[in-house]
Amino acid sequence: MLRQRAVSATLIVIGTLAVVIAGGWVFFAAALLTALKALDELMVMLAKAGHRPARLLGHLLVAIFFLVALVNAPGRLLGEALLLAVVGPLLSVMLRRSLTGTMLDWAVSVAATLYIGWLAAHAVLLRALPDPFQVDAFLLTDLPAVVMRLQVSAGTRWALTAILVTWATDTASFFAGRAWGHRKLAPVLSPGKTWEGAAGGLAAAVATLVACALVFQLPLSVPLAAVAGLGLGTLAQLGDLAESLLKRQTGVKDAGTIIPGHGGVLDRIDSLLFTLPAVYYLATFVG
After folding, report:
1. What would the pLDDT profile of 48-72 be if each residue is shown by its tens digit?
2. CA–CA separation, 128 vs 114, rounded Å?
3. C-alpha dist (Å) from residue 232 to 10, 18, 129, 204
4. Nearest to residue 126, comparing CAs of 276, 285, 287?
5. Distance of CA 221 to the CA centre of its chain
6. Boundaries of domain holding 32
7. Local structure of residue 114 (DSSP, 8 states)
8. Number of separate domains in the chain
9. Helix 154-180 vs helix 2-22: angle between axes, to the nearest 10 degrees?
10. What is the bridge-based pairing of β-strands 184-186 and 190-194?
11. Chain segment 41-52, per-residue pLDDT in tens
12. How far is Cα 259 from Cα 261, in angstroms, rounded to an integer?
């Protein structure tokens, strides 16, 4: 099982980094398809729990969130798109012949759309941040190390930072928990999570963000990067626990089966749903 997880994780890492670096329509399409698949998994989970979410409308609203982000309009992502996400599902349940359970169905439809669509659309806003500059990238191959000059936008640096910090948190918390975990962190939500694992994840988040700030030349001092690392590490683990809550409430072990050893797409992006918006607002705050 661990070997299967490692193989899947390696492929995910390579594919994700390639897509982030490629940017443009490649990144937009990959991010949108990922969000749509995650929403579909969540809608199936809700249906298994007896709800009737607005499935087709939810997918349409997620696409609208992403299109708004594509034109780099964060204000509208917070305004008009949110209005549609709230009003659209309400209108859809009003058209039903039976009103049984409509309030709950409206609520879960709105929650699912915002949880996946609104949060994930920040990935597009983050990757689109401008200000290209030069960095040194060291390519380690069987030949002597070669220093290449690459044009890397601020969006690329910040997006890579968000992903690397999240991955480091998830990986470190998993292995630290296996090695030293004894005290349960949230036994009701996720019995496997421990305080020792959480501490390992936070340490990895701090170290990774400080390293990213130095290597990517982010406008963060080392102390600020350390504090931000603690925040992102906490959000990453809260994102994981949030999805655990959803799975507990809907009675499923994994959100899906598409990724061998990892479950569904939602299982892999649950932490990123919390960290990507946070990094976007951090980046816009520090300039």
Report:
1. 999 999 999 999 999 999 999 998 8
2. 21
3. 23, 23, 19, 11
4. 276
5. 25
6. 2-286
7. I
8. 1
9. 170
10. antiparallel
11. 999 999 999 999
12. 6
Cα separation, 165 vs 230, in Å, equals: 10
Q: Measured between alpha carbons, how far is residue 216 from residues 129, 132, 220 in Å?
A: 14, 12, 10
- pLDDT recorded at residue 80: 87
Contacts with 262 (C-beta within 8 Å, 6 or more apart), sequence order: 5, 8, 9, 12, 268
Question: Tokens 């290449």 — which residue?
Answer: 148
Structure-token match 């990895």, residue found: 204
Which residue in the block uniquely carries the two structure tokens 């936070």?
A: 202
Contact 269, 241 (CB under 8 A): no
Q: Which residue has the tokens 């749509």?
A: 36
Which tokens in the block code for residue 185? 């962190």
Q: Identify the burial level of 153 via C-beta atoms within 10 angstroms of its C-beta, where 0-12 means exposed, 13-18 middle and 19 or more buried.
A: middle
DSSP code of residue 128: T
* Residue 65 CA: distances (Å) to CA of 9, 156, 273: 28, 21, 14
- Report the predicted TM-score, pTM, of the whole model to 2 decimal places: 0.90
